[in-house]
UniProtKB/TrEMBL annotation:
Record-given protein name: F5/8 type C domain-containing protein
Signal peptide as annotated in the record: 1-20
Region (Disordered): 518-550
Compositionally biased intervals (Pro residues): 518-530
Keywords noted in UniProt: ATP-binding, Cell membrane, Disulfide bond, Glycoprotein, Membrane, Nucleotide-binding, Receptor, Signal, Transmembrane, Transmembrane helix
Family: Belongs to the protein kinase superfamily. Tyr protein kinase family. Insulin receptor subfamily.
Protein topology in the membrane: Single-pass type I membrane protein
Main location: membrane
Domain of life: Eukaryota
GO cellular component, one term: plasma membrane
Amino acid sequence: MMKALGGVAIFILWLAVTDGIDPSQCIAPLGMESGTIKDEDITASSAFDSENVGPQHGRLRAELNGGAWCPGNPATPEATEYLEIDLRTVHVITAAGTQGRFGNGQGVEYAEFYMLDYWRPRLSKWMRYRNRNGKDVLQGNINTYLEAKENLDPPIMASKIRFLPFSYHRRTVCMRVELYGCRWTDGIVSYSMPQGDKRANSWEFYDVAYDGHWDGERLFYGLGQLTDSITAPDDFKVPYYDQAVESWIGWKNETREGPIEIVFEFDKVREFTSVVIHCNNQFMKDVSVFSKVKVLFSVGGKRYKGEPITYDYMEDRVFDNARNVSIKLHHRVGRFVKLQLYFGGKWMLISEVTFNSAVVSGNFTEEEDETESLQKDQITTADNNDGKNIVSAVNTPSGFGQYLGVVVGLLAVLAILMIAVVAFIVIQQRRYKSSPRPSQVPSGCDKAALYREPSIGRLPCNSDYADVRDPDYAVPLQPPQTPRTAPPLHNFLPKPPPVPLPPERYYAATEICNAGFIPPPPPLSTPPPVRIGRQPGRYMSNTTKTYVGP
Ligand SMILES: *[C@@H]1O[C@H](CO)[C@@H](O)[C@H](O)[C@H]1NC(C)=O
Ligand SMILES: *[C@@H]1O[C@H](CO)[C@@H](O)[C@H](O)[C@H]1NC(C)=O
Ligand SMILES: *[C@@H]1O[C@H](CO)[C@@H](O)[C@H](O)[C@H]1NC(C)=O
């Protein structure tokens, strides 16, 4: 029975995390070699001879015409020439492959080094890629025929990529390339939030991987650690000793007025099932999970109509491990989602936010501006009705999300029922054992060991009884001085199931009852993620304050 329970719990977990990108599975060639990427999506700064060595020939393992892309000018340390690939939608790029010009044995050109620039809608600028060690010059080829494959750690989230051949000395180069990765199905185009705070002199809870703009206070138009699929460790100090470990992003209540607002922008209008926030809870060190979250939705991004979804988190001062807090979003629809996180303590640290969502088709009009002065938390009834109408109008076509919701709901109910039954049995067994029954012999040794009860007054285990199944039940009834004897549960449950250690099980039960908490999955269910280190070099400096407004 416990096995079945565990199975159900694992299944629920699995359902809850299906939408995140699994970096170890995101390794497919994106289509330079296969031709999925069309010729017109491959361009270049120049070509030595566009017919023979134009950008369309820069495909890995292709041997047409000249057999590679060769820029009009030699490669230099300035790296001015580039081969550009338009993937059209945002992809997660986990590796890049390069080759030189073999040209049926006639070619001699290859690029020893190269750099990568990337572009995303919203970012609206080309960013130079740097890996975890802060290096932007990547290792290329050593001959004209072997592919050099470079793993990108951290991965690049981009819709366009440029390969820039690089050389410390002037050098004629040609390139054939491939990209490896997968589509970025989460659909997050950017998130915007206040930059984290510094704690004492030692710990900076900054989003160091953020690639958008930073105006000194707020981060906007970029992506960073919240969406890199990597969670930070239980102890927030660990990343400061081990640079390879993901660090937390955090804010201090003292320096903030009101809740922390994080706005996520998506590629298309989507219907949301849930959001999972990975939170720290080292309450001994003044860090607590938020006390409350409000979630607001918008199509246009200017006005957030409809009643916010409010989620209350019950303070946990027992366990200080990091946890995933899952909030149901009831199939609400929007292209922008705003999270308002209310402090539960002096500090609030998060490391990852994952949405479960699906694109919805249909005509969506931006919310009108007519009541601009209205505060998001003081919404009139008319607004509420509007919000509900939008939701119900769109809910109908997408049956799958609802179906999934029903399945998850049923499973959750089943799990709660099972836990209730187990708890009931445990309580009954405990009562049964603790009621005074001097005339009785303790049941089998194995059973006594499983319960881990205080062994006051327990008779030594007697091997004579070891084979007897629950001798208690065979004993004639006691005189009515023990009216609280257990009901005959064993009639339909002949063997009481092995019962877990009580504290853990109670924890799980209350957490599940506390609306949608996702208990930590067993470590074996998650493959090791790609690790992303701290890259101080990747943020935009204060000097780039100029940007194009939305
Ligand atoms: C956060 O700070 C405000 C005032 O600065 C205070 O009223 C509130 O109680 C604090 N919240 C927590 C959880 O410490
Ligand atoms: C969406 O609205 C536009 C005009 O506002 C209309 O031309 C178009 O057909 C509509 N599309 C759908 C799918 O209803
Ligand atoms: C939280 O969920 C992520 C996947 O979304 C997983 O990698 C991580 O191990 C989970 N952490 C805990 C503490 O459950």
